[in-house]
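Need tokens for this chain, all 188 residues.
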Amino acid sequence: MLDVTEGGQVQVRVFGAGWCEDTARTRRLLRRFRVPHVYRDVDLDLDALREATALHEGPRRTPIVEVDGHVLAEPRNAELLARLVASGALAGSTALARMKDHNVGDLDRLLRVVLAVTVTAAALRRPPAVRWPVLAGAAVLAFTAARAWCPVYDAWQVTSVDGPGDRPGEAERDTWLASTTAPLAWSK
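Here are the structure tokens for all 188 residues:
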């Protein structure tokens, strides 16, 4: 087995494929939580394929994620986050803060932009007394879309990240909104 630490830091390795939705979801989660990782495409690198199948000790699956010597095959986001926190690659408080900091999913962001543009276009044809409050509301919608954070969602403690429409094929649930206060594996 290769040394999984480098300079005292946990090394995260991902073996995946460019066409694989689970690989895309896993890499997106690692980027979102700013976890440094090494990615190797098993379709482009035969040595990576051999190493991934040896780590998994079974048939080819993608992604295979190695964190601190622990091998995860096709991990769900919660499972991967729990392993990252347990290994020290990500502090539990940092994980919770980043989950709270990004609570608007991709489809939700797109809908906010479309609504902001539509409201802006409609407001420009209204009298100034009505125009400015409506334009302010459109600006708030545009800001929440750009920032991927919604103060209303934050107050309600919900998120649309990982729901339907949030990177089709990578969604982890069927409901639009999910609670951000549900017990997490590392927060117990």
